[in-house]
Design a protein that fits this description.
The chain is an alpha/beta fold. The chain folds into two domains: about 270 residues, Aldehyde Dehydrogenase, Chain A, domain 1; about 180 residues, Aldehyde Dehydrogenase, Chain A, domain 2 (3-Layer(aba) Sandwich), CATH 3.40.309.10. It is about 40% helix and about 20% strand. It contains 15 helices and 20 strands. The chain has a seven-stranded mixed sheet with strand order 14-15-16-13-12-17-18, sandwiched between helices. Strands 9-8-7-10-11-19 form a six-stranded mixed sheet, sandwiched between helices. β5 and β6 form a beta hairpin. α2 runs antiparallel to α4 and α4 runs parallel beside α5. The longest helix is centred in the first third of the chain and has 21 residues. Bound molecules: nicotinamide-adenine-dinucleotide.
């Protein structure tokens, strides 16, 4: 079931040369297989293959690219059950969530394939009679992409599909902790007829791979999803050759609940959203500011629903929340809870590891903690929820905007006036009003401030892989 892990370079599946690391099943801690690590020779081959393939792929018509991408998305839908099972094995999330993610990934391929047909340029009225002023869109070149382990299908596919649709070639390094899902998606592209070298998949020691690819002049664009510190490091490295960058970094999404909401409905929606992927979501609702009059009942109901979440292996029927993806997250959750307790936070439910195998952590709710503690200021990336009260609109906006993050934000209210005022006042790239769903293939996904820059999805997602060229003719 779990595939043999190989590199994909120049259309060939290639074994590693002995170095590598085991991929762990987070539900058990057992090894699923060995992930090969690339050395310089492997990366040189990937760079050369991508550079050669770019020369011809950039000349293909949008119709031809769309045809291949349509086929790749159909193949991924046909293989969804297999790919979702692989995803759950290596990442841990419940199989239902994995199925949705894989189908979403297929939709992303299809959407980019369709959208590349509409990558219009424009004619600008000329100043001088008899002359033409044209603005054209061209593929940016060879792309190096780095994807994390929390969405093993969605994070890589946004990069692969965007680059391929625009006429770029790409070298992608998915996470070494969840490598197989990306590989299975790459197989769909290959089986759909994508020419050799357009899409190359490598794994390796992350810092070594990124530094090496960063030095290559032929690589013209970097796209990274991951933590803020790594994003900053890659930006510094990209500066040496002035590569274009898209940075999808961390978040610390505020959730502002006003006192005019239906408590039961809101608690149900928030619990379902918060514990998706055990909270390991960059747009996860993170800091809960609840207006004074509904604070007590909402915290109590949220904690009750959180405590009732059924934890288990992702492949087990009835599981509502799986393990965390790696042991680092369990340690991180313990540190967040410890710090919150030391700062006066009251643990309403959870607060500890769950079970004696795998990387499980209980859904945890902590109330009344200071805005300055770790949980309120650093990305938890896990199932630990801080809840605090607020009184006025101005006060909560100031607190919500006080961090350097600016990815997603959410508000719950029945007042149109309040929702409009919040959406204007909040510093974030995405805002959900009475919903936690802020990500679709056709809408721009991205952050502001230290949550990064650039977008994936929407027409902006395609533009991220295009250069503009102005052509004047007389
Ligand atoms: P980390 O910061 O070391 O790694 C984050 C991701 O970046 C991983 O996928 C890793 O493989 C990759 N990475 C690390 N160094 C790299 C380098 N030099 N070049 C290229 N890629 C590199 O730590 P981690 O324990 O994996 O994750 C910790 C934190 O990262 C989480 O708490 C969360 O805040 C953040 N994170 C964010 C996202 C997101 O979707 N924005 C995804 C995963 C992790």
């Amino acid at each position: 079931m779990y595939p043999t892990l190989q590199f994909l370079i120049d259309g060939e599946w290639r074994n590693g040369e002995g170095h590598g690391e085991p991929v762990l099943n987070p539900a058990t801690g057992a090894s699923l297989g060995d992930c090969p690590f690339a050395d310089e020779a492997v990366l040189d081959d990937a760079i050369a293959a991508a550079a050669t393939a770019f020369k011809s792929w950039r000349k293909t018509t949008a119709l031809e690219r769309a045809r291949i991408m349509r086929k790749a998305s159909d193949l991924l839908r046909e293989r969804a059950e297999h790919v979702a099972t692989v995803l759950t094995l290596e990442q841990g999330k419940p199989i239902g969530e994995a199925r949705l993610e894989v189908i979403y990934a297929a939709d992303v391929i299809e959407w980019y394939g369709e959208e590349c047909k509409r990558a219009y340029g424009r004619i600008v009225p000329a100043r001088v009679p008899g002359t033409r002023q044209m603005v054209m869109r061209e593929p940016v070149g060879v792309v190096a992409a780095f994807a994390p382990w929390n969405f093993p299908a969605l994070a890589p596919i946004r990069k692969m599909a965007g680059a391929v649709a625009a006429g770029c070639s790409i070298i992608i390094k998915p996470s070494e902790e969840t490598p197989a899902t990306c590989l299975e998606m790459a197989r769909c592209f290959q089986d759909a007829g994508l020419p050799a070298g357009v899409l190359n998949v490598v794994y390796g020691q992350p810092a070594f791979v990124s530094e090496y690819l960063m030095k290559a002049q032929v690589v013209r664009k970097i796209t990274f999803t991951g933590s803020v510190p790594v994003g900053k490091l890659l930006m510094r490295q990209a500066a040496d050759t002035l590569k274009r960058t898209t940075m999808e970094l961390g978040g610390h999404s505020p959730v502002i609940v006003f006192d005019d909401v239906d408590i039961e409905q809101t608690a149900q929606a928030l619990v379902a959203g918060k514990f998706r992927n055990a909270g390991q979501v960059c747009v996860s609702p993170t800091r809960f500011y609840i207006q004074q009059d509904v604070y007590e009942p909402l915290v109590a109901r949220f904690a009750e629903l959180a405590a009732a979440r059924r934890l288990g292996p992702g492949l087990e029927a009835g599981t509502e929340m799986g393990p965390l993806a790696n042991p680092r997250r369990v340690e991180a959750m313990e540190a967040f809870v410890r710090d919150a307790r030391e700062n006066g936070g009251k643990v309403m439910t959870g607060g500890a590891k769950h079970g004696n195998q795998g990387f499980f952590f209980q859904p945890t709710v902590i109330r009344d903690l200071p805005d300055t503690c770790k949980l309120m200021t650093q990305e938890p990336f896990g199932p630990v929820v801080p809840m605090v009260p607020f009184r006025t609109f101005d006060e909560v906006i100031e607190r919500a905007n006080s961090l350097n993050f600016g990815l997603a934000s959410y508000t719950f209210t029945n007042s149109l006036k309040t929702s409009q005022a919040v959406s204007e006042a909040i510093e974030a790239g995405m805002m959900g009003i009475n919903t936690l769903a802020v990500s679709t293939p056709e809408t721009p996904f991205g952050g502001v401030k230290e949550s990064g820059h650039g977008h994936e999805g929407g027409i902006e997602g395609l533009e991220a892989y295009q250069n503009l060229k102005f052509v004047a003719s007389a």
